Amino acid sequence: MQTEKYRGYTLWGHSILQQDDMLQSERFAGSGTIMRDSKVVEVSGVLGSFDSDEEAELAGLSWCRAWVDSHG
Q1: Structural element, H or E, at residue 54
Q2: Sign of dihedral through CA atoms 67, 4, 45, 24?
Q3: What is the chain's pLDDT, residue by residue, as a tens digit (72 residues)?
């Protein structure tokens, strides 16, 4: 999980391992959470499937920044 402060909000990028079959390569679901003053403001849901943990987290953070920019 990665976090950052952005325009008064706390943003979280999440990654969840998705591996249905042990023979397949690992894939990660990405999502984002936006908080302000310790309260959840918005949650993205699953944004897609990514090749790495970091890619999934960065997609979540990117979604969060775009949400803040469009609601600020």
Answers
A1: helix 53-71
A2: positive
A3: 999 999 999 999 999 999 777 677 889 999 999 999 999 999 999 999 999 999 999 999 999 999 999 997
**Domains annotated on the chain, with CATH:** 2-71 (3.30.160)
Closest Cα partner for 51 from 32, 24, 33, 70?
24
SS3 of 23, please? coil
User: How far is 60 from 14, CA to CA, in rounded Å?
Assistant: 6
Task: Tell me the whole-structure pTM to 2 decimals.
Answer: 0.91
